[in-house]
Predict the structure of DUF2269 domain-containing protein.
Amino acid sequence: MFKLSLTPRRWLLTLHVLFSAIMFGGAVIFLVLSVIVATSSDEGIVSACYTVMHLLARTSVRASTIGTLATGIMLSVMTQWGLFKYHWIIAKEALTAVCIVIGPVGMYFWTLKAVELTSAYGWSAGADSQYIVNSVQLWIGIIIQIVSLAAMTALSVFKPGGARKRRKTA
């Protein structure tokens, strides 16, 4: 299998870290905007926050997730790490699946629903049970996304668990 030399591997790792940072930054922006929504009594601010979140879900969240996933797979396949050789890489793959479901999919639909509800009902949507359920789902998604991204970063730094034991073939 083709393995990258040191300089191309460093450039690929740099791209991976940049895409990951954009992903993490996006999740933090969602958190900040959700705090603003939760503490604001201004209908315009609430509507603007949800609109910005939806715009981010359609653009940078998708792009950074695709970029992180693509560069991560390339790093695994084109270096000594491999896709399934180490426990920490498998854990990162599982957390990546969670982030894909929550990020580009969940955030998109939750923010779209919030934009639709606030556009249709204005500030009175805040008392609607659909709005409350959607808001709670969005909050849970943001928290899971941030925790998952932080855990993946820690796994990359500490690399716990070591290599998987190879099965002996007869």
Observations:
- The longest helix spans residues 87-121.
